């Protein structure tokens, strides 16, 4: 049996660390919203700190003092997105959990604001090393959280004990991201269903098992799930 993890019962929604309230929180929210707007409209090249300050209604000195660079703004935005995201579904039924999480990803990538935002962030990560690092941290955190339903299934004995939970999550999401980024075919529930079916087939064919590996994902046994947008 793997190391004990949180139960599949509903979990409390809470930030990773306490955020300052009052005007500080309002300023941060306004600045990150302005950063999102710039990314969606103009891409990473559109993140001009004085323009962000004007859009957010704050002084330039505030932007330079707290963030200083476009890369720092994007890193803080990604941290905020991860903290404010919706939790992975954990019903105790792996098929249902994978389906719900794939459908959530499709809804996110086809959302009129979230879809273009993710496209801009991924594009920025291809040519800016700091943004690549921040985006990798974001997805590492998301993969760890989305591994929890697979780890639950390992504990129930539904899948082999040496299943690589993170590989399952990546296999589920990869075709959806590929279609999103490289084709003009709209993502829909059929795409989500196909991703789930192929992932489950590979899972039950033991394609994701690891010899001598502990059935946990990094940090999944020690961190509580966080919400996903």
List the topology elements.
Elements (H helix, E strand, L loop, with lengths): L21 H21 L6 H8 L3 H7 L3 H14 L10 H16 L4 H12 L3 H18 L1 H9 L8 H18 L6 H16 L25
Tell me the overall shape.
Answer: elongated
Spatial extent as radius of gyration: 19 Å
Straight-line distance between termini: 32 Å
Please mark out the parts with pLDDT under 50 across 5 or more consecutive residues, or reply none. Answer: 1-20, 213-229
Number of strands: 0
What is the CATH class of the largest domain? Mainly Alpha
Q: What is the averaged pLDDT score? A: 86
Reported for the largest beta sheet, the result is:
none
Series of secondary-structure elements, N-terminal to C-terminal: HHHHHHHHHH
Please estimate the helix content.
Answer: 55-70%
Superfamily (CATH H level) name of the largest domain: Tetracycline Repressor, domain 2
State the assembly state of the protein chains.
single chain
Query: What's the CATH architecture of the largest domain?
Result: Orthogonal Bundle
